[in-house]
Each structure stands twice: as structure tokens, then as C-alpha cells.
Amino acid sequence: MIIINQQDYWGAIRKRRKPQDEVIQRFVQPKIDYIKTVIASEGGNLADCTLLDVGSGNGFFSYYFEKICDVTCLDFSEFMLSINPCKKKVLGSASEISFVDDSFDIVFCSNLLHHVSNPQLVVAEMKRVSKKYIVVSEPNGSNPIMMFFGMMKREERITLKYTMEYLKNILKENSLTIISSATMGSVTPNKTPSFLLPILTRVNIGLYNIVITVKNTEVRLSENRI
What we know:
By secondary structure, the protein is α/β, with parallel strands linked by helices. About 30% of the residues lie in helices and about 20% in strands. The protein has one domain: Rossmann fold. The chain contains eight helices and seven strands, in the order H-H-E-H-E-H-E-E-H-E-H-H-E-H-E. Helix 3 (about 60-65) links the parallel strand 1 and strand 2.
């Protein structure tokens, strides 16, 4: 079993793209557009929502969410928050979120669960502080490219188990109702060369799984392949 000190890993100063980079924009935007569409189909409007970005890091997603709605960033790395350009930032743990119940309309995380020792606990905390929506995105462990990255980099090894089924089971164990799910994306934030963007943005390689859930118990499920 490989044990990674996540605090040391994410606290290290190393090269990362800025949220404003075009590669990051192409990585993020399709997922945000998908979330907007699903919420609109539920009769809501992302622009009217408050959103907590759990494990926000240096702001890959929160930078773009902030252009649309009221965003708060949460991360346990002081360094990551220091280079996050968003206004509202809170230093704290995803497994013990420092907000009261039902604080945000949407609680979101991306590429976080495979870095924590107890993803069920993190999802339980996300559910607790959410009024309605819990949205989770993770690398697709069934994708050959993600399998390769997982095998080559020990910090990402656990991505190999993060299939869509595995991700959904974590959410179902917290009694969340899945309203929509999708496998999408051809761009990775830190590995994709910018010169490949014109090609990669025209195809869907399926690098990531994203699942949108709600706290109620009404049984609804929409399977999407984007």
C-alpha cells in the first residue's frame, strides 16, 4: 500500500498552470456547462446559486464558477489558496468542513476524492453543508489514458479504482440521489500541451466522470454520454 502525505504533496511549491490558462479553460468549461444545463433542467439557475468548491486548490474551477455565481473556496493547503485568485477562501479540511448545515446551494469537488483516505466521510460532509446539490468529478479509472497516468505516478495510483460505478457507489452510500452523470473530457489540466487543443477539443476521449446528485430521496436518474 502506498501512503502519500497529502499535506506535504499539495503544500510543495511546484509548477502549475494558472486558472486563466487556455488549457485550464478548456478542461473546466465543458463540465461547468454540463452542470448549468442539468440545474436548468431542474428549474434552477446556476447564476442564482451559492457554491462551495471543496479542495479548490489554486482555483482551476472556482475561478470560472466565480464569473457565474457566488463561490467560496475551501482547501487544506495554505500555498494553494495563496495562489488561488478568487475572493472568498477558507483554509480547512474536506473531512471536517467548517460551515453549518445547509450553507450552500451547491457543493462541488473535482479530482479530490482519490486523494483522501476516507472519500465517504468527505461526501458526507459535502452533503451536510449542501442545501440541495452535491457535484463530484473524478478521473475516469476505466479510461486507458488515465490508467497509464495512474500507473506511472504513485500519487495518482488510486485513480485506477475510480470507475463510474465506483464513484456512484460512494455517493449512493451517503443516500444521495443521482440525477445525472456523464463521462467527458479530452484535456488534462497539467499534462495537455496547448498546441493539441484545436484537436482535443473536437473529440471526447472520456477522461473524467462527473456525477450530479441531490439530497432528496426522489428516485430519478439520467444517464448522459457527452
